[in-house]
Design brief:
about 250 residues; alpha/beta; Rossmann fold; 11 helices; globular
């Protein structure tokens, strides 16, 4: 049975997409079968994986708007990942969604989820029907915590969002961890934020961080996850450690 996971944060610039892409790839490097679903109309995760969404035969948008397309037909393979690519047309599809459509992703993915060990979702950094679909489907959430001044507010909003979903739409969803990202350990604010979260959520914050580095945007620009682009970089090692941590939980 697949573990269904999303990395969620309303605020952009939190390292959300970098985390989903590299966590998914790190799990593949551990021999896991991973389906990666890009639900963001910006398709940044798709592009970060070296896939041009405009050249993909089908994308996840086609699965939302068509009742006849099989999800396996839309899968693109990259770096060992099976990818349902994002596309700008998702914004148009979302504009036509009704409240009952928040469970559409369950319908789309249920025929193939048993083929995988993990299904990992990248979502828009906002409240939207697409984000609601992800939260209605996933059972596990990782919150990326950018170590800066407004981080605690964003963390609180993310926790409240998941709590609201668990109270109604998806009782099975739980936050499984808080991952500090884009950390500059030389700054007082980064240390202060991490110390605060360690005190408030000692059982949730992971015992490792993803440090700030220009290598992350370099890897993204190259269309290669950093765990492959620079395997021994501290950021790569952090994401590999996260994958190992999650794998050990499942064992």
């Amino acid at each position: 049975m697949a573990r269904k996971m999303t990395v969620a944060m309303k605020k952009g610039g939190s390292g959300k997409t970098t985390t989903t892409v590299n966590l998914a790839t790190a799990l593949v490097l551990r021999g896991k079968r991973v389906l990666f679903v890009d639900l963001d109309p910006q398709a940044n995760a798709t592009i970060a994986l070296g896939i041009n969404p405009l050249e993909a035969r089908y994308t996840v948008n086609d699965l939302f708007v068509s009742d006849h397309l099989e999800p396996r037909e839309a899968v693109v393979t990259k770096f060992g990942l099976h990818v349902l690519a994002g596309h700008t047309a998702l914004a148009r599809a979302e504009s036509g969604m009704q409240p009952s459509d928040v469970v559409a992703l369950r319908r789309i993915l249920s025929p193939i989820e048993a083929d995988y060990d993990y299904v990992i979702l990248d979502v828009p950094p906002s409240d939207s029907y697409l984000t609601a679909n992800a939260l209605a489907y996933a059972t596990e959430v990782i919150i990326p915590l950018q170590a800066h001044y407004f981080a605690i507010e964003g963390l609180t909003q993310a926790i409240e969002q998941v709590s609201a979903v668990r109270s109604g739409l998806n009782p099975e969803i739980n936050i499984i961890g808080i991952l500090p990202t884009m950390v500059n350990g030389r700054t007082n604010i980064a240390r202060s934020v991490i110390e605060t979260v360690q005190k408030q959520y000692p059982d949730s914050i992971y015992p490792f961080v993803v440090e700030f580095s220009v290598r992350h945007p370099e890897a993204t620009a190259a269309g290669v996850p950093i765990v492959i682009y620079d395997p021994n970089h501290p950021g790569s090692l952090a994401y590999k450690r996260l994958a190992e941590y999650l794998d050990e939980q499942a064992a």
